[in-house]
């Protein structure tokens, strides 16, 4: 167990280091990162002044080491547009994104898992096929379109919900649904496969032979045993939801880090964009690690060599 | 030259039948082909010039007739014919998706095969880079790269090609790895085939199936990403007609002109849905490692 844990943790750290390096060098794709950050219409003197104040006049390797050292101490530099440090700019917005991701996860799990269980238990029926159509639709709906459709229906036509902003719990509903629909399809598929896998097992046959009603079999036996893949997928989906929030937040003017990222690109505030990408990638890697560990705790066959049986 | 061997005794000719799983996918193949045709022949199919503005005919609802011209899907905020813009939008979607899939596929498959063939330091270098790329959520990676390179059609293709190759590399690597120790590959190597010939003639034809599956699913994703980037204002720039940028306009006029957001979104959804279903079908058919 500990060998597997150590190996995976080291792997994750190496990947983390790689991500920081990649993000640092993406900034240099066009050669001169300073041009990314100066406001339009800046004079040559302005550009030189900014270059010096940001340290871009030094050798690249020195900048890289500095950047790496900064990130290690969670120092992502200064926001150019806001004149404060990047981390405090993000800290104000992060709770909104987490709230949105939590809402979306709730929607995705709440609809996806029952749908998946239903599709497996009622396999081959017309109702199960209809459920599959719902899943396929959810999987192919671009969030920025479903978001607009929700606004059209619930804000413009019916007037039940606010169309944008973050004023109270009611403004969280539509963004959560728009974002959650995509993950809903993932959960439904995983739950379906997992339940189908369990349905063929001996213990289910025994329970049915004993005359245990199907409803009880599902609630007492099936759900527990098929929950493992769903839990691990949930860990991975959280990261996807945070990334997907970039677009949904723009649709609904939700003040999270996604909207901040786009605003910062438009304001040429590159350090903020960089930090947001890094933070989400960190979360992604960490959640991946957690999912692996969860899996190995629940299913001991995975631990030994890290590859399963 | 020797004559082809006769079939071994007892071997019957395989019966060619239409795969039953194909039937429900057929309508979606038709939808995809329809979009492809619309994209190819956009200049002949569009009833109007997609760029010509009519400020007196702004925000007209579908079916409205302005001074003798019928606007089947209505007009946008500058009085441009929405149907024509949606038709030209198909062109942008298909073009960006096709180009970015081709470029990232070529880069990714080549690197993946090389890593599996040479192993050692080359494998470690390539596959660790793949791990790093795949650990950044794809839309964020695309956004930060486009933020550096700047928006525009060519840059969007460049960004998608630069950020999407690792997925092909990982599949090509795994598939090639399972082949390199096969007797026929070792033999082909032994008798002195050059590396490019070995990869091209002996390995590539045997990994085409799984690569095709990834490419199909990626195609749908690329359509989505182009639209997403254009929606955020980071992709194809006005006045060029992209479904994504039209949706962004539609978002702003949702209370007064619902059609601007409805029709491009519907096209986007139908195209992605049909590509996804075709991809699912191909995965069932071509990828021996997948099971449902």
Please provide a written account of the structure.
- The complex is a heterodimer of chains A (309) and B (292).
- Chain A is mainly α and 309 residues long.
- Chain A is built from 13 helices and no strands.
- Chain B starts with 25 loop residues before the first helix and ends in a 6-residue tail after the last helix.
- In chain B, strand 1 (64-66) and strand 2 form a beta hairpin.
- Chain B has a two-stranded antiparallel sheet with strand order 1-2.
- Chain B has 292 residues and is mainly α.
- Classes of the chains: A mainly alpha (309), B mainly alpha (292).
- At the A-B interface, helix 1, helix 6, helix 7, helix 11 and helix 12 of A face helix 4, helix 5, helix 8, helix 9 and helix 10 of B.
In short:
Chain A is an all-alpha fold and 309 residues long.
Characteristic key phrases:
heterodimer; A: 309 residues; mainly alpha; 2 domains; 76% helix; disordered C terminus; B: mainly alpha; MetI-like fold
C-alpha termini separation of chain B: 45 Å
The CATH H-level superfamily of chain B is: MetI-like
CATH topology of the largest domain in chain A: MetI-like fold
CATH-assigned homologous superfamily of the largest domain in chain A: MetI-like
Placed side by side, the strands forming the largest sheet of chain B appear as 1-2
- Listing every helix as H and every strand as E from the N terminus to the C terminus, the arrangement of chain A reads HHHHHHHHHHHHH
Ends of chain A: how far apart? Answer: 15 Å
Which CATH C-level class of the largest domain in chain A is it? Mainly Alpha
Radius of gyration of chain B: 23 Å
Secondary-structure-derived class of chain B: mainly alpha
SS-based structural class of chain A? mainly alpha
Task: Report the count of strand segments of chain A.
Answer: 0
Question: Which percent range fits the helix content of chain A?
Answer: over 70%
Biggest sheet descriptor of chain B: 2 strands, antiparallel
Count of spatially separate domains of chain B: 1
Provide the low-confidence segments of chain A as ranges. Answer: 304-309
Write the element-wise H/E pattern of chain B from the N-terminal end onward. HHEEHHHHHHHH
**Approximate strand percentage of chain B:** under 5%
Oligomeric description of these chains: heterodimer
Structurally, the number of domains of chain A stands at 2
Shape of chain B: elongated
């Amino acid at each position: 167990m500990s060998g597997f844990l150590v190996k995976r943790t080291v792997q994750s750290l190496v990947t983390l280091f790689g991500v920081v390096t990649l993000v640092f060098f993406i900034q240099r794709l066009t050669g001169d990162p300073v041009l990314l950050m100066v406001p339009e219409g800046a004079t040559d003197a302005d550009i030189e002044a900014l270059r010096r104040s940001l340290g871009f006049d030094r050798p690249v390797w020195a900048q890289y080491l500095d950047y790496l050292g900064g990130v290690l101490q969670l120092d992502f530099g200064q926001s150019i547009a806001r004149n404060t440090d990047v981390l405090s700019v993000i800290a104000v917005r992060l709770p909104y994104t987490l709230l949105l991701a939590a809402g979306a996860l709730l929607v995705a799990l709440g609809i996806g898992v029952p749908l998946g269980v239903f599709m497996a238990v009622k396999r081959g029926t017309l109702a199960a096929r209809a459920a599959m159509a719902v899943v396929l639709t959810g999987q192919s709906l671009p969030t920025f379109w479903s978001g607009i459709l929700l606004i059209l229906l619930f804000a413009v036509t019916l007037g039940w919900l606010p169309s944008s902003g973050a004023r109270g719990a009611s403004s969280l509903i539509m963004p959560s649904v728009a974002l959650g629909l995509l993950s809903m399809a993932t959960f439904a598929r995983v739950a379906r496969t997992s339940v189908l896998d369990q349905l063929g097992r001996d213990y289910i046959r025994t329970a049915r032979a004993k005359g245990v009603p199907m409803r009880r079999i599902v609630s007492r036996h099936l759900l527990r045993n098929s929950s493992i893949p769903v839990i691990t997928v949930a860990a991975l989906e959280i990261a996807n939801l945070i990334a997907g929030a970039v677009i949904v937040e723009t649709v609904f003017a939700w003040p999270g880090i996604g909207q901040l990222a786009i605003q910062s690109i438009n304001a040429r505030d590159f350090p903020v964009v960089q930090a947001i990408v890094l933070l989400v990638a960190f979360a992604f890697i960490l959640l991946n690690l957690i999912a692996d560990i969860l899996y190995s705790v629940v299913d001991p066959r995975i631990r030994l060599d890290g590859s399963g049986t | 030259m020797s004559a082809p061997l006769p079939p071994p005794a007892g071997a019957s000719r395989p019966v060619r039948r239409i795969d039953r799983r194909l039937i429900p996918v057929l309508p979606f193949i038709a939808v995809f082909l329809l979009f492809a045709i619309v994209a190819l022949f956009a200049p002949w199919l569009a009833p109007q010039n997609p760029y010509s503005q009519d400020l007196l005919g702004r925000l007209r609802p579908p079916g409205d007739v302005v001074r003798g011209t019928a606007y089947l899907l209505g007009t946008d905020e500058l009085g441009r014919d929405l149907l024509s813009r949606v038709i030209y939008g198909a062109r942008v979607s298909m073009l960006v998706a096709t180009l970015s899939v081709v470029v990232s596929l070529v880069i990714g498959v080549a690197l993946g095969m090389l890593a599996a063939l040479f192993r050692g330091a080359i494998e470690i270098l390539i596959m660790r880079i793949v791990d790093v790329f795949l650990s950044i959520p794809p839309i964020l990676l695309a956004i930060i790269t486009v933020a550096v390179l700047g928006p525009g059609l060519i840059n969007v293709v460049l960004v998608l090609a630069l950020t999407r190759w690792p997925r092909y590399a990982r599949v090509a690597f795994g598939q090639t790895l399972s082949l390199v120790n096969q007797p026929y590959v070792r033999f082909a190597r032994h008798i002195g085939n050059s590396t490019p010939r070995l990869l091209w003639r002996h390995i590539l034809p045997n990994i085409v199936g799984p690569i095709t599956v990834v490419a199909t699913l990626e195609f749908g994703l690329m359509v989505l990403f182009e639209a997403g980037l254009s929606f955020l204002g980071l992709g194809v720039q006005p006045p060029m007609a992209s479904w994504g940028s039209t949706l962004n306009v539609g978002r702003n006029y949702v209370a007064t002109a619902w059609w601007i957001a409805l029709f491009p979104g519907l096209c986007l959804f139908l195209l992605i849905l049909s590509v996804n279903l075709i991809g699912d079908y191909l995965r069932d058919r071509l990828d021996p490692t997948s099971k449902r």
